[in-house]
Amino acid sequence: MGNSYAGQLRTTRFEEVLHNSIEASLRSNTVVPRPVFSQLYLETEQPLTHDGRAENDDEDDEDGSESNSPPIPYQMKPPPEGCCTTDGFCQAGRDLRLSTLASDPFDVPTGFMLVGVKSPSLPESLLVCAVDHRFLPDERGHNALLGFSGNCMGCGEKGFRYFTEFSNHINLKLSTQPKKQKHLKYLLYRNNQGLLVQGAPVFWRGHECRIRRIASTLAEGHVTSDGQPPNINPTHPSHTAGAHVDPPVLPQIADVPPSPANGNHAVPSAITQPPLNQSGPGRPSATGPPANAGPPKKRHKGWSPESSANSLPESAVKTPPSSSTSTTIPVSSVISSGARPETAVPLSSPQGSSTPISPPELSVTIPDQLLHTCRLQPVIFKGHGPLPQLTGNVSEVLVSSLLQSCYLSSQTLPRVYQHYGPSPIQPLSTEMQILLTVYYLVQLGPDQVPLIEDLEQIFMRSWRESHLSEIRQYQQPQTAATQGRLYGIETLSTLPGFPQHLSLPPQSQQPLTPSQLPWLAQLAASSCGEGVVVVGEQVGSLAQGIQQTFSRLKEGRLENTNYVVIIVTAPGQETQSCVIVTGKHQCRALAESMYSPSEGLKEINQQLSTGVAQELIHYCNCLGQDGDLDSLLDSATVDSNEQSPMSSSQESAEDKSLKSRHSPKDVQRPKESQTQGSKDSPSTKEGASSPKDTCSEYSVDWREVRPIQLAVARKLLSHVCAIADSSTQNLDLGSFDRVSFLILVPPSEVTFQQTVLHLWSSGVLQERGGLDQECLSQQEAERYVVKMDQSAQTRIDNLIQEAHRNSYTLYILVHDHAHRDINIESCSSSDSSLGLVDQLLNSRQVRDAPNILILHVTSFPFALQTQYTRISPYNEIHWPSAFSNDVDLYHERTRYFGVSELLESTRSGSSLPLMRCDSSFESMASALEERFPKLHSAVIRTTVLIQHYCVALMAVSGRISGSHNLHKHTSVETLEIVQSLLTAAQQCPAHHGHMVLLRIPSLALAAWAHRRLSRVRRQLGLEESFEIIMGNPNQALTIGQNFTDQIKTWLKIQEADWVPRTYLELEALPCILILSGAEPLGESLPRSLKYCDLRVISCSYLQRTTLEQELGLAAYLVKAESRPPHNPGPGSDQLESDAEKLSSTDNEEEEGQENGDSPLSSSQQLRSGPDSGGSDPFPAQSTSSPNVQKRTPDTIKSPSPSQTQNQPQPLSQSLLCPQPALHHQTLPQVQGHSQPQFQSQNQSLSQPNSQHYNQTSSQHQSLSNMQVPHTQPQILPPAQSRRQHSKSTSSGSLSPRASSPHLSCSWARGVSRPPSVLLPRALYDIITASDSSGLPRCTTFLPHMSVAWASSFRPLLSKMMTCTEQSLYYRQWTVPRSYHMDCSNRTEGRSDNFHPRRLLLSGPPQVGKTGAYLHFLGTLSRMLIRLMEVDIYDEEDINYSAQAEGVQYHLPNSRWPNPDIMKTIHFNYTIHDPKYDDISSVYCPEYKPSAKGNPMRQEDVYIRRRTSRIKLSKYAAYNTYHHCEQCHQYLGFNPRYQMYESTLHAFTFTHLLLGEEIQLYFIIPKSKEHYFSFSNPGGQLESMRLPLTSDWSPDCIKSPIFTPTTGRHEHGLFNLYHAMDGASHLHILVVKEYEMAVYKKYWPNHIMLVLPTVFNGAGIGAAHFLIKELSYHNLELERSRRLEGGGPAGDVWPFIILADDSCVMWNAVDLDTRSGAVEQAVSLKQVLQHMEACPDLVQYGLCGIRKWSSRGLTGNPRREPFSRGHLHDFLLLNVDRSQNVQYDQNRFTCHDVDFTLRLHSAGLLVCRFNSFSVMKKQIAIGGYRTFIIKTKMTDVPTSVGPSQYVCAPDSKHLFLATPAQLLLEKYLQHTSQKLFPLSTKNYAHPVLSVDCYLNLGPEVTVCFVSSRPHSVNISTAGLLFSGLLLCFADSFVTAGFLKKFTFLQGATLCVIGADRSSLRQTVGRLELEEEWRFRLSDEFQTANAKEDRPLFFLTGKHI
After folding, report:
1. Would you call 426 helix, strand, or coil by DSSP?
2. Rounded to whole angstroms, how far apart are CA atoms 864 and 856?
């Protein structure tokens, strides 16, 4: 029935439930209590709640009554009057908090126990009380009496009999019924210091059931770890997505023995416990309940809480101070990886398994001298069940809870599986987990360290296989939502790191029983002999098993055992287990992995400083029978002229025999080897001094910007523009006029200088337009780069303040190497530079500043891609993946060789891989690690490595007598490195060489290594041969002066004080670079890097970021030209062998017998294998001597082209995104001295299973042979000189031609070959392993130490994932730890957790990200300048006469024109505006045209007018794309506000010329209604308010501004806010009716005047006509309104402004400067107020300003400040004085010329203010000059020529859908030379045009005369006209008027009328037939249909 008692009622249980039910009934008036039997039998079947609350100890349903009934409403009694009600104090006012009372002595009555009470109002504190132990449960959770008896420990009051009463007394302030089970939480005891501390939880029943139901908690983030203390942050619910995040720095948990003070066997526990987990997405962090907090509701074979009795003195645990217990899904790769909070910790804590174990008095005594005897420190992995108390010498044992955490997380099912279907999915059973653990340990190699990731995946695989059908059934409906491969759960055929030969136990339907487990486990362990020992049936408790193990360990019976698995399966009890690691190698690795990286370095420093490493150093110095290293050095000979003893004549017989056996071809060249030996002997210094010694192949091109970098910069720019273009208003690019930036780099001096160098050489600073001062030196560039140390605080604070002040500057913070410091600010105490990024970049000032944009740049973005990330996935920019052939799009000359290519080289099998490990070094290091168990392995390995280097230097230098005997004291790889280093520079005339990178993370060890190597170099006399550089990130780069001089010579640097500051500048310098520091900090390395020696990096911290950044040091850009064809010829580089490659195999003899034929055979086999047409991805990257390429054809098969080239899109750029395979990579071929073969007898790799790890690399570990190089160079033809021939192609390779490589520089050969990488064996095995999908195993590791996996049940990464998919994977499956700076990102209450102005640029290491983002900065800067610039028409005035005016009418500095003087100035009829260079000039007697005339502009050819790019001033007018904070209200729309409401008002007026009543519409926003007057009763629009002439305000413009516009709703410059400089003004847009809606949408806060429908097809003339007539009508209305109000009528302001919609800026001439007239930008407000303030302005009919030209002030220095002439674009019109002169409403073109001429002829003054100019922006869209002339038949696409614009009346012609007036104007413009043939290019005989001006084309001159009486006309006396133009002649034109003018014979007459009858009437009325001859065929009409009212014209000839 679901009850574990199978229906049997236990007496105690029944009584308790019955009591609680009765009590609940008595206390409640409303709720019916649950029946007793339901509680007893049914409650265990209740499903787990999923209401989002954490199932922790606060839940109501977890109380002692185990009732799931609703909470009982409860009202606490009001406290007595005057008593204390403060939280944490009793009502008597005494403090009860544990923190306060910890040191107070207590008198605890006998039988009472001190208990911690949890108060909901004080989550961080416990309240101390004393409770009778009879009312508390025993360690099994049983036998607690009902009721309560307790005392207050504050005031001392005793005898509380009811817990309700007691809770009132201690001020618990509960909202629910007080229950002791819920609030009496922890037992208290005194620790060794006598302080009262929190102990084990009180084991109330009902809590332990969670251990069986934690399946749901992982997805929710509930922590239910067995091994974790329960009392940290107990009140915060945890709802994380599996986020078990450990804090970085917390005290260790150290359990202490039980204190007898409580009078019974109390159950104390840990003193201080770290939080078990941290928050997941969006919820506060907290701990879940302890897994064993109480008895389960469903019992499991009994239950016991006695684990809490196990304790340990604080001093017992040897752990670093900054670690803490990890309950996460294993976050480490090694069982606890270093920066892991997991450490050597709690040897006991409450266990979650419900297992009765040994009584608490049973403990395990650790034997004395365990470490000394066994030479190891055992590691105990807590498993299932509580660990017994350890006593005795506990400091020599380490305890880890990582395995326990793995067990728990693997049993924590995701929430989606909890209630699945009728057959619920169950987690793995305890027994299955233990058995799988045994299986895993059995298959581990003797030198392998267990990886939690592997074990976790084994559990997951087993679980998936056992529930395959259910999982698939569940996944079926989810496919679309989970995106298949990305989020679906995969079942792996093989597990990463899990040998395929190891089969998991079958998942039978019958569960594994506890009784079966021990013998199955022993059966599994039997396969590995003594490697894994299972202690099972013979022990009754964990304590007994552990004690037995320690005894056997002390007795030496576990010498060959690595793991002891203890399993306890007593009948009726829960299965318990633990694992004791007893292997020396494993114990050391696990112990060191418990240090955080910083603590590990501190431990190393301490060992070095205290001298404990001296014994090791002395031991290594001793070379056995060969003597002592130091003494050998002291006897070294330094005579440089002495022949090196390394020639072949010095070889021992043994070495010669070995060499002849393995290298038959080398014995053919004894002379060559001797010659080479003597040839290379002169010192380097001597050679360097010769001026002839130059290398033609040397070039440094790292400053170049590559095409792919430009592409990435463009991608960055497009993302920034996308942010700006989005509707979120998060980035307003339009408001910024310049870019400033600050580049934040890690605290490394070299990285700082390197970034400064890149910045300086990029040209970004020189290009920036906004630099206050020119950047003259490289030091100036340092202002833009800052190291992220304490000095950064001030720099960034200054930037924030500057950004606040300069809102028009966009500040970009580039956070380079962004993965380095992601710690939260509060964690910065241990390392002063940590936490700075969080403190500075995540501060509110930076986050909220709208003009600060943050760009994170990193090669390892994983730590920034979590569930809480601040970076939107849309703001990630990934480097283009070369694997998908993206790079080919950019025509790259280089190919990137990164981590994945290194990995690929290990799999190619055809040559020596570029990445390998050194077996002999590993053997020596392992032996010394066993000899010195207390020393850190880094100390041992570094000492051995430096010893190897010293010995190799001595051996290769030849300066030590008997140096051949030294070979056995070093390793093959080290000898090869040193040989290459010393010989490379000797082969180049300029002594170019290689760099050897020696990576030593510890600064102290690196400094020791530098001193040691420098001393050896000095004693060997090699100071001039190579440099030894100490790469300390905290110090500047220092090298010797002679090497500095060499570099200056190579780089052609003249500066005397120049020194290299970056590693890049060490290009081609032969050197050993010792790079130190806990991690690389972004230092770029030169391309001369040949060897990357990582043999001493730590193997403890196995996160993806840590591994990849170390391997990233070897990342390389290889020249793409060196890539050979797929099937190279015999002489190709693909078969080149490396002459100095010292390779060997561990089974050379065997291999030699297999393939002992000529060297040619292996080469031929390499090429002629079964897949000879294919190309191996790495055919010969580091080809060893052919005689050691002993592979059968089967082993050297190359993958087919389809395998190598058509790989799917990879996962990431680093490990998951392999760049395209380089088809040709060989190690540099540097010829050295001939070298005998040697192999150390005592170091040969004797491990029988060394082949098990990597057969390929192990075949090259011991020294084989050094080839004898060629000596006699011979010049090759150019075609051959590019190749380097192999010496293994044929016997012909001995010819002199084959010796060409010795001519070339070894550096030049090396730059096309990636460096070789040497790794520790442990890392090599991990990195080179891959899963079944081919994914490198290390990619499955935790991505970064600061994040944790969200769930064990995550899918694995897929090799098919793109970088974007990988980002989404990490965003779903990782959560930040508590010390990650993003951990609080979800708790800030924002729905959108992404920062809108953050970008992330990720790309593989050393690929060129710095160059890309620098180019981006430059491009963005130019773009912003471009955005702030506009194309301004910049044209010189046209038609200026050569005769300059000699009269100066006004003084140059006159402010306003004098009307009297203006009347004396001649009106200039000539048109000077360059936009009218294609129209007819107006005849002016004073003007003498130039001989050239104006060029003829073709109709069909668009000639671009001259423009200049001008930066916008702060007074510019803007279009709709501009939006800044100041403009929001002016523009009338802001996302925070609603659109401004507008009202539509009709306005009607009558005009004679219109012939009918015209109705206009005004659209008036509510905010602008005060500019209008409305009728009182109806609110009808009456008039537009006008000011008085006498009114003046400094912040007001009196004249209304009218801007007619069409087609420019987006691009028209209607935003006058900045132009007006804040002045109030009335701006009215005049729009056509059909465009009303779109203009209103874009300009909701502007007043619109909507033209009548009949004007929809009209031109600009109609708009200006209507504006002018409406304005005059409004003036009359305003005068009437003023008269009605009692004011003067004539004082109303009569001016309006007609402005073009492309006027962008205004300028004023400043004459006060010494340099003459200078134009400067001014506001439109200043221009208008100046003109409006003109004293006699009302006397002028029209005023205007000139058009700007860049040469406008240079032509005439005495230019008149005011002039009379044509005005355009920006007019101040007096509508009162000009009331009788109207714009021609029919005109489309030249309407302003026509209007000005008529205005002048009417006698009105026209004045141009030459001191002001207007700039017109080139707008290619819309405008009134844009007309499309098309046919009415829309299906005819043919273009229409000007000759078709007219036709004969009544003829069948193609009618056009174009207004008749426009057709006429265009016809006259383009065909006037035919119409007026006498007028063409005849300025002296113009065409007479009466009362109007029409454009007759640029070759015809028009003389304008007015027929009006008293009009002002030019004198026409003596002027012969070549034609007469009469257009709509009115009654003022009479026959007598025309008779005043004289015409040439044959002159042309053109009469234009509205219809044929009016034409005839005009001809008759004007008596034209008397002087003009007409023909019937001379009558024409425009090509319009009748309904379109065509125009007619008649032509004739003068008689």
Report:
1. coil
2. 9
Counting Cβ atoms within 10 Å, is residue 140 exposed (0-12), middle (13-18) or buried (19+)?
Answer: middle
pLDDT in tens, 1171-1201: 333 333 333 333 333 333 333 333 333 333 3
Answer yes or no: are the C-beta atoms of 792 and 213 closer than 8 Å: no
Structure tokens at 908: 């190619």
Place of tokens 């924590």: 412
- Give the separation between CA 1079 and CA 1092, rounded to whole angstroms: 15
Give 1531's contacts (C-beta < 8 A, 6+ positions apart): 1520, 1523, 1615, 1617, 1643, 1644, 1645
SS3 of residue 1594 by DSSP: coil
Higher-confidence position of 1309 and 636: 1309
- The token pair at 614 is 């001296």
Alpha-helical (H) ranges within 581-668 are 584-593, 597-609, 614-621, 629-634, 653-662
H-helix or E-strand spanning residue 737 = none
From residue 528, alpha-carbon distances to 442, 456, 562, 583, 1248 in Å are: 6, 22, 11, 14, 15
In this model, does residue 675 exceed pLDDT 70?
Answer: no
Using DSSP's 3-state secondary structure scheme, residue 1942 falls into strand
**What secondary structure does DSSP assign to 1796-1843, as a single string?**
HHHHHHTT-EEEEEEEEEEEEB---S--TT-----BS-TT------GG
Amino acid type, 1010: H
Q: CB neighbours of 1761 closer than 8 A, spacing ≥ 6?
A: 1450, 1451, 1452, 1453, 1454, 1457, 1809, 1810, 1811
**Strand 1887-1890 and strand 1992-1998: pairing?**
unpaired
Q: What CA–CA distance (Å, rounded) separates 555 from 760?
A: 68
In this structure, of 729-733, 785-789, 952-956, the range with the lowest mean pLDDT score is 729-733
Question: Which class for 1911: exposed (0-12), middle (13-18), buried (19 or more C-beta within 10 A)?
Answer: middle
Q: Which residue has the tokens 């208290």?
A: 188
- Residue 1695's alpha-carbon distances to 1698, 1800, 1976, in angstroms, are 10, 17, 49
CA angle 199/201/204 to nearest 5° reads 155
Which of 751, 597, 591, 756 has the alpha carbon at shortest distance from 1079? 597
- Kindly report the number of other CB atoms within 10 A of residue 361's CB atom: 10
Angle formed by the axes of helices 1409-1427 and 707-725, nearest 10° = 50
Q: Tell me the sheet residues that pair with 917.
A: 1319
* E-state strands within 600-737: none
Phi, psi of 1398 (to 5 degrees): -120, 130
Strand-strand pairing, 1972-1982 and 1992-1998: antiparallel
Measure Cα distances from 1476 to 1473, 1697, 1748, 1783 in Å: 6, 22, 15, 18
User: Model confidence over 1392-1423: pLDDT tens digits?
Assistant: 689 899 999 999 999 999 999 999 999 999 88
CA-derived radius of gyration, the chain: 47
Whose structure tokens read 């009850």? 3
Q: Which amino acid is at 1399?
A: L
CB atoms within 10 A of CB 1972: 21
Burial 259-271 (b: 16+ CB within 10 A, else e): bebbeeebbbbbb
Of 918, 920, 946, 942, the residue nearest 932 (C-alpha) = 942
**What is the Cα–Cα distance from 137 to 166, expressed in whole angstroms?**
19
Give the C-alpha separation, 1827 to 1806, whole Å.
30
Q: How many other C-beta atoms can be found within 10 angstroms of the C-beta atom of residue 1849?
A: 12
How far the first Cα of the chain sits from its last, in Å, is 128
Name the residue type at position 426: Q
pLDDT digits (tens, 9 = 90+) for 1508-1541: 999 899 999 999 888 776 777 787 754 444 556 8
Contact 258, 309 (CB under 8 A): yes
